Amino acid sequence: MTFDEDSPFLALRRTWQPVALATDLAPGQVIGRTLLEQDLVLARFEDGRLLAADTACPHKGARLANGAIVEGELMCPYHGWRFDSAGACQSIPSLVEPNPQKCALSHLKAYGAQERYGMIWVKLDPTGDHELPDVPEFEDARWAYRLGPPMRFEAGFRREIENYLDMTHFAFAHGETLGKCADPRIPDMKITVHEDGFQMDAPFPALETSHEQPGKLQSAHHRRQRCHLPNFTTIRQTFTDGDERVLVHIPSPVTRDSCDVFWSLAISPGFDGPPPKSQIDFAIRVLDEDRIMCESQIPSEVPINPGRGGWGVLVTPGDTLANQFQKSFRQWLQRELSAAETTTTSSAT
Ligand code: FES
Ligand SMILES: [Fe+2]
C-alpha cells in the first residue's frame, strides 16, 4: 500500500483524540475546537451528556460553537434553531408550524465523544474500533494525578512524538532546565514490539550536575517509554527507592502543521520529591523548550514516506526510537487503512 500525506489523517479519524480538558467544558457550556482539520462544536448539557458535531449550522452555516445551551438544547446564535444532545433538530423558530421533515433533514453531523483521564475525547469515524489505552495509575485515587495545560505546537503531530521519544536532545534543547550535564549518548535500551505499538526500557544514570528540580528527579532511575499507536505515549520512571512517575503526551492533530499537546502526570503515593505543582510548572518550561525545537524543524511534519528530506539521515543510535515510531506507525497505518477499506466495501455491498 502506498501512502500520501492524507493517509495519516484518514486513519486518525478512526481513533479517539483529546480535544479539550474536561474542566474547559462545564455543564451548560459550549466551545469550539478543531480536530484533524474538522471544526467542531463541543457541548456539555446540564445532565452531563456530551455532544461533538460539525460546528457549521445545517441552516446557513453559522458557527454553533458561538451558540449556547438554552432550555436543555443547543441553540444556534443566528436564527435560533435548536438541537438536542444527539444532534437532532428540535425546533426551527421561523416555521409557522413545526415541520418534522425539515427538522429530520437538519440533523447535525455528530461524532463519538467521551470523557476520560480529565480530557474530552472525540472519534470522527465511528467505524474505527480504537479504544483508549488503559493507564491504571491515572485513575487510582492513591496516586496524585495532575493535568498540564495543553500546549499548541505549530508543528505536525509526528514531529512532537519524535521529540517525546528522543533522549539525545536534553543537553542542548534543555540546557536551561535539565542542564548541560545530561549525557547526549543513549543508555542501553531494550525495545519490545507490541500489537499496538512498542516499548523501550532503559536504565537512566543520575545527572552529575543538578538541574532545577532537586533530588529525586535527577537521580538514577529506570525509564520505560510505551508508545500506543498512533500517538499516545507514556513514560514511566521508577526510582531506586520504588517511587514512580507516569507521564503521558498525546499530540492531538489540529491541522497538518499544528497539534495540541495534551499531557498529564501521575505521581506514586508518598513520592519523596518536589510537590506536584512544582513538577508541573517545571514540565511546562521543558515542554516549551521542546515546542521551540519542533516549530523550527523543516518540513513542519515528518513526511509519511521515508526520505532524507524529513526523516533525517537516521544513522545515529539516538534516532533509534524515532525510527521505530515511523516504522511502527506506517505498519499501523496500513492496517487501519485496510480496515477502513473493508468497512467501506462491505457497507457498499
Ligand atoms: S445559521 Fe443556524 S439557525 Fe440559521
Ligand atoms: Fe524534550
From TrEMBL:
Any Pfam family the entry gives: VanA_C
UniProt keyword annotation of Cell cycle present: no
Keyword Cell membrane in record: no
PROSITE patterns, per the entry: RIESKE
Keywords per UniProt: 2Fe-2S, Dioxygenase, Iron, Iron-sulfur, Metal-binding, Oxidoreductase
CDD domains: Rieske_RO_Alpha_N
Gene3D superfamilies: Naphthalene 1,2-dioxygenase Alpha Subunit, Chain A, domain 1, Rieske [2Fe-2S] iron-sulphur domain
Residue ranges of domain Rieske in the record: 17-122
Name of this chain's protein: Aromatic ring-hydroxylating dioxygenase subunit alpha
Source organism (scientific name): Actomonas aquatica
